[in-house]
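> tool_call: predict_assembly(chains=two)
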Amino acid sequence: MEATKVIDSRGSACPGPITDLIKAYRNSKVGDILELWATDLGVKADTDAWAKKTGNEILEVREDPDKIVVKIKINKR
Amino acid sequence: MKRVLIIGSGDAGVILANHLDTREFDVTIVDKSELHYYQPWFLYVAFKGSRRKIWKPNADLLKPGITFVQDEIREVNLDQKKAYGTRRLIYEYDYVVIATGTSPDPDSIPGLRAIYDEYGDYHSSFKNSHKLWTHIKNFKGGTIAIGQASPTCKCPPSLLEGAFQLEEYLNKKGLKSRSKIKFFTPYPRPYPAEPMNRVVEPLVRGRGIEVIPFFDVDNVDVEHKTINSLEGDSITYDLPIIVPPCKGTRMKIVPEDLQDEDRFIKVDNRRATIKGYSDAYAIGDCNTIPTSKTGVTAHLEAMAVAHQLNGEYGEFNGRINCPFDTAYGKATFVIADFENPTVPYPPTRLKHMMKMSMARIYWMTLKGRADIIFDKYFDWTNPAKLNKKYAPLYPEQQAT
C-alpha cells in the first residue's frame, strides 16, 4: 500500500521518532498510511505500544541498510 | 563587505553574531524584544519563586561592530534576498539566518487558552512562570495535573523537571499527604528517550508521582476541570499545569513551501541551510532538525553556521546536552548525537552544581568567552564514550 505521508525521523535520539509519529497522528485522518523512517532502534517497541494504545495498525516493519521503516494504517482518530 | 542579517536574538542568533568576523561581514541582528532571558531558569521562577535577575538587554550582549535593531520582521523573501520589518521597511542581505525560536500556541487546543491565561506555565515566558508560582505558593492540597499538551515542545527534560520540583516543594511544605501529582505525557513512558528513562523512572515512581502515558491533549473542559486526550483518557485536576504546544516562526517566508505544517523551517540537518538555498539558514528551535529543541543545539548550530560563513568546516553533529534537575540537589544531563543513542547518565550533586553555574556562565557563552571550556567538555562527555561506561549499568528492560 502506498504511504499517504512519509515521516523522516532519522537521527532523532531524544525525544525520539515517536515524537514525529504522534505529531503526524494529530494531523492525520482515518485511512491514511503513515510511513515512519528512523534510525533509533527503540522505534519498533514504541510504535507497537503506541498502535495498541491508539487502536491503529502496524502494516509493516522493515529494516533497510540505512533505516528502519514502520508503516502504520490509521484506523482511529 | 557581505551583509549578514540575523533574525532573532535568542542564544542562537547572539552566538552566531558574536562569532562572525566583523572585518569581513556587516552584521545586523533584529529582534522584536529589547531583552534576552535565560530561559532554563523559568523552572525556578515557577516552582521556587526565584527572584534572580535572568535578563539582559540584547544590545549589551553583542560585540562592538554589530548592529542591533529592535523591530519585528514580518516577511523574508529568499528569492529577492530581502526582509520586511514593521519599523524599518526593508532589510537587504547577502546571507540571512533565521533564529526566531518557537512561539507558544495555546489556541490550537480547545479550552487551553483559559488555562494559559489564568495559571501560566513554566516554559513560555518569565511572566507566565511568575503567574504559575502565585498558584503554587497558594496551593493547599488536591490533584495537580502536570505535563505537555503536545509532543511539539521545547526541552524534553523540563517536563519531568517540573514534576520533580513540584514534589520536592509539596514534600518540604508538608502538603504531600494532601496532594496527588499526575504527570501526563504523549510518550510511552515518563522520559521519552528510553535509555534515560531507565535512570529516572525509578525516581518518578519512588516519589509517588503518578504517570499517565500516551496522553496527547485533545481538549480541556474548564467547567468540569478535566483534561481529555486524543487517545480517549481523562484527568480531573484541582491545579492544571499545562505546557502549551509550540509552533515555528510567525514570520511569513517566501517561497511558502519551506515550512512544515507547524511552521518549522525545513533545513539540511547538518549544515542548517534552508532547503534549496546556500545563502539562507535557520538555526535553533525554529528549524526541523530532529533533535530536542534546546539551548545547546541552538548554540552548536550557530557555531556550525559561523564556521561555514567564516569559510571553515562547519557541521552540526546532532549533539544534545540537556541539563536535567532531578530535585533534592541532584541533576543529570541528557546526552546523545545523530550517531549515538541517549546515555543512561545517573544524577549526581556535581552535575547539579554544573547546571546551577550555567546560569552565570551562560552570559559568557553568548560572547564566545567560554568556547574553550565547552570544546573540552563536549569532548570529555562524548556520548559514544559515556555509553560504553554507563549503558552496562542500566541494562535494557524486557518489554512486558
